[in-house]
Structures are given as structure tokens and as C-alpha cells.
Amino acid sequence: MSERPAIRVEGLTKRFGERTVVDHVDLTVGRGRICGFLGPNGSGKTTTLRMICGLLIPDDGAGEVLGLDLRRQRDAIKLRIGYMTQRFGLFEDLTIRENLGFVADAYGIDDKRARVDAALERLGLETRAHQLAGTLSGGWKQRLALAACVLHEPDILLLDEPTAGVDPLARREFWDQIHLLAADGVTVLVSTHYMDEAERCHDIAYIAYGVMLARGTAAEIVAESGLVALAGEGPGADRLAPRLEHRDGVAMAAAFGPTIHVCGQEMAALRRAVDAVAPDIRWRETEPTLEDVFIHLMRGASDNSVGAGA
Fold first, then answer.
1. Do the beta carbons of residue 254 and residue 291 sit within 8 Å?
2. Which of 3, 66, 84, 132 has the smallest CB count inside 10 Å?
3. How many other β-carbons are positioned within 10 Å of the β-carbon of residue 133?
4. At residue 35, what are phi and psi to the nearest 5 degrees?
């Protein structure tokens, strides 16, 4: 396998009017890797995906996708990428098989029937092949959309919040398929708001309002955050968050079932805060979560893209 990364962009920038929606973003993703792309709504994730797949032209920046120039070879890039949008984009009045046949025709696939049959089998869609797409549940629509994305055997998959609104079992099965594709050498860049999905990625890129704030594995991002955490147990622990949230030394506090989880940037200050508010609660040191880190980063970021599409 080539050592050349599947995606390498530098200084990627996109403006809509006076608003900079993506602000000099650098991103490198190795071949066969699953990169989670995270950030609050309106932070430029979708815009970045669209620039990488050739649907939008960057205002600044450059890079390569599969060794092809991001600006000059956009048409060639599109043929080697599968892009799954946030909303279901296939025909609801066609069956699953008919939808896949349409996609095969659009790509000019010669062995159309064999490729459609293989996609149906891979995504477990054979028994529903003649069902109208509009009658499918969210999880089955998701499978159909993924089958359509991989029909032309792309080298890269760009998935834009593909499991939003899908039940946990369907999400688990979807991610099993993503890992199988990555094992076959497909590179995946997937945006998500689910922390459990982020932790299933090989590494993560976190963007807030157009600016890349964190890059690395989940463990690396947590370790480099500088956050420390305490977990509290005892009567009424889960009701303490409003009293702790704005104390000196506390960055955030949240209830988890009957317990309380508190984060800050210095353990001594964090302990002073919790002891002052809840001395009767049993406190123990724990690890900050990925969600803690992302909320902390988001609160410190400046929203410079209000009203811009992202």
C-alpha cells in the first residue's frame, strides 16, 4: 500500500460573503484510516467535506486527494469518492434494487447486475431488494445509502453525520460495515456528534467555527487537553451540577445517573470547589471523557460563522 496519504490539504479556506466558514484548515488522513470529524453545528464540517470531494472550490489553500490536485483534478477526484450526505438522497418511489441500478448507470458501471447483487449482499439488503425506498425505516435507508456510496468501489468515503436519528443497533451494524471497508483499504472521513462513534475512529479531527482545534487519537486528545476530573457519589450528588458549574476551578459539571462528574484544569482547585459545596459527597479522581474535552474546546471557541451554511 502506498505511503502517500489519501487526503492531504493545507490552509483550506472557504468564505461565504464576509464570513469565513472554514479557516485555513490542515488535514491529513492516511489510507485505510477512519477519521472522525467532529465539531458543533455550523462549524464548517460539511463545507470541508464538499471541498475535499470536489463539490466546492476552496477560496484559499491547496492539497491532494488520492494524489490528485484538489483544484485542477476535481472531476477525477469525484469518481473515486463515495459521498453520503446528511439527508437521504435517493428516490423514495423506486425500490432498493432500482435505486442501486440508477446509481450504477450514473457511474457507467459495466457489470451492473453483479455489482448491485454484491452491494445488496454486503449490506444485508437482499430480502428487501424489491421494497420501495420510501417505506424503509431510518436504519434501512442508511444501509441503502451506504450501498449506493460503495457501488462504484471508491477509495475514499466521506460520510456526513450518517447515523443521525438511527437506533443503537443500526448504528452498531453500520460501524461494523465501516470497519470492514477500512480493512479493505478504503479511507473514511466521517462527521458525527456521537462520542461513542468518535471513539471507534482511528483518529479524530475537531473543528469549531472553521478552525481546527484538536487532532489525534481519542486518547491523545484527552491527554493533551490538560483537564482533570472528579466523580462524586452520595445522596443528592446528581443535583449538584448547578451549584458547582460556576465555581472557581470548575470548567463543567454534569450528572451521570445518581453521580456527578466535575472537570477543571487543576486538581487542587477542583477539590477546593467540590469540598466547599459538597463536603459530604465521596469524591474520587477519574479520567476526563472525550465529551468533556470537546465541550471545553467548544466553550472556548469564538463563533465567527453565525448565519453561514456549514
1. no
2. 3
3. 20
4. -110, 120
Name the pLDDT band for 304 (thresholds 50, 70, 90). low
Q: Nine-digit cell at 40?
A: 458543533
Residues 174 and 144 sit within 8 Å (Cβ to Cβ): no
CB 61 within 8 A of CB 25: yes
| pLDDT tens digits, one per residue of 18-41 | 899 999 999 999 999 999 999 988
- d(C-alpha 47, C-alpha 310), whole Å: 5
Environment class of 70 (CB within 10 Å of its CB; exposed 0-12, middle 13-18, buried 19+): buried
Report residue 190 as a C-alpha cell.
Answer: 466521517
- What is the secondary structure of 224-290 as a DSSP string? HT--EEEEEESTTGGG-HHHHTTSTT-SEEEEETTEEEEEES-HHHHHHHHHHH-TTSEEEEEPPPH
Residue 308 has pLDDT above 60, yes or no: no
Residue 47 three-state SS: helix
Q: How many angstroms from the chain centroid is the CA of residue 50?
A: 14
Residue 140 C-alpha cell reads as: 434501512
The residues with which 216 forms a beta bridge, in sequence order, are: 204
Cell 483534478 belongs to: 73
Q: How many CB atoms lie within 10 A of CB 38?
A: 27
CA atoms lying within 13 Å on the CB side of residue 102: 13
Of 52, 93, 55, 84, the C-alpha closest to 148 is 84
Strand arrangement, sheet containing 203-208? 81-84, 156-160, 187-191, 34-38, 203-208, 211-216
DSSP structural state of residue 4: S
